[in-house]
Amino acid sequence: MTDNNSNQCKGLVCGLWSVLRRPSVKYSLGTLLVVGFVSGIIFWGGFNTAMEMTNNEEFCISCHEMNDNVFQEYKNTIHYSNRTGVRATCPDCHVPKEWVHKVVRKIQATNELYHKVMGTIDTREKFLEHRLELAKHVWKAMKSTDSRECRNCHNYEYMDFAEQGRRAVSQHSKGLEEGKTCIDCHKGIAHELPDMREVDPTAVIGSN
What we know:
The protein has 208 residues and is mostly helical.
């Protein structure tokens, strides 16, 4: 029985190798290469188009869970409206710029589709019930990347401490010395904080 399975496997491998060596008796190798190349371009273009279509604020708030809760809070912050007119949108803070990291984040986001279908946070009450859990998940992710998305705009190296207030200089200098990252101190910047009694009470909480 084992010998038969082994022979079948060998036959399958040989068959696949034969197809690779002589892909078609009807079409030339050049034709197959051109078709494959064009198909690859179409697939790649479609894939990247889908990536960009799901990488804007309009898409992010198309679900009422986001639009009715965190988006309304974000609209009251300096990241949404400020004197310079520079706005940080949902993907600016929650989706990496680098392509590989962006793809990984999109794959991870499929879990959010599951919870959308299951109605995990489809009411305000459910959202508030899960708020701390959701916040911890985001904080952990940001911590693991050294607040990568924050540093697309904010960076210790670019800061002019002479232009900062005394408290900001003190906190930023201390954070730099201790190797802290943005999210260690600046929780609650773009969204309201959950019940923080389960979170380290010594954490410095940024203000809106």
